[in-house]
TrEMBL record, chains A, B:
Residues 1-68 form the HTH merR-type domain. It comes from Thalassotalea profundi. It comes from the Bacteria. Keywords: DNA-binding, Transcription, Transcription regulation. This is HTH merR-type domain-containing protein.
Length: 142, 142
DNA sequence: CTTGACCTGTGTCTTACACACAGGTCTAAA
DNA sequence: TTTAGACCTGTGTGTAAGACACAGGTCAAG
């Protein structure tokens, strides 16, 4: 399989396949003309990479996992440990987004009923300057 | 106020203040020795920028808002329109994270009870290869 | 006069690709 | 046979919002 064929097969882009190949996560063979050809084993590796990405592993994580596996060791303990880390991070970001979303919605609601005001030397936009986060958010950092 | 003082005042970093200054969002004066000094008006601009960032505006958005305001026009319509866009984007990302988080949690649960397995030529890690997303997630793209 | 804490600009690094570009290669039609 | 178009190649750059590094200037205190 060639790059574009492979990408289409898995609903990703040629650039993504090339990117993984640059990082040596994929190791296609070369045909006479210089084109990359992906044999079945590389195809299954791509499938693996895409699955792992969907589960929140970083590309760097995947490299570590593949390295481990290429030594013949079971990567499972590493995989379990990594996903705990990533899940914790995701949870943090998730909470942050939850708060952000609420702030944005509140702001939108507050602003719908406020009139426009021209800027002054000390105020760029009174909407933003006057926005008050509500109870749950806006508390200082904890 | 000097860079570090200013950063501390608002709980941000000197690098962030320098970054905004590079982009000319802030325009400090220079003292004899070449140091940047931020007069009160620049201090209030920084406050504005940080508030806007907290509301999900991009730095580029803020530049547009500031540009508009510097022409003497009310930036309010632009601000209302931008936050709608940003909120829509945030909502999308939020839903994506929600799904990701669920997948990660499900994977973690599935994996706690599975044994380790050495890799084979066609399988890097059976945990990841065998993961099945549950109902709500995993549906094809819609 | 030296130490140490601050400041300066500039440049590089991060993530996970997307996109551009100049040029090589293949297929099929004219 | 030529040629158009659709593919491929590598390499280089751009993205967001800073973080970090580095070489060197500045300043107050001892």
């Amino acid at each position: 399989m060639k790059v574009t064929e492979l990408a289409k097969e898995f609903g990703t882009t040629p650039d993504t396949v090339r990117y993984y190949t640059r990082l040596k996560l994929l190791n296609p063979t070369r045909s006479e003309n210089g084109y990359k050809y992906y044999p079945p084993i590389e195809i299954s590796k791509l499938k693996f990479i895409l699955s792992a990405r969907q589960l929140g592993f970083s590309v760097s994580d995947i490299q570590h996992i593949v390295d481990e596996a290429s030594l013949g060791k079971a990567a499972c303990p590493l995989v379990r440990s990594l996903i705990k880390e990533r899940l914790a991070e995701t949870e943090k970001q998730f909470q942050a987004m939850l708060a952000l979303r609420k702030n944005m919605k509140d702001a939108l609601a507050q602003w719908e009923v406020k009139e426009d005001k021209a800027p002054t030397s000390t105020m760029v936009c009174h909407l933003i300057d006057s926005f008050e986060p509500t109870e749950e958010n806006g508390g200082s950092h904890e």
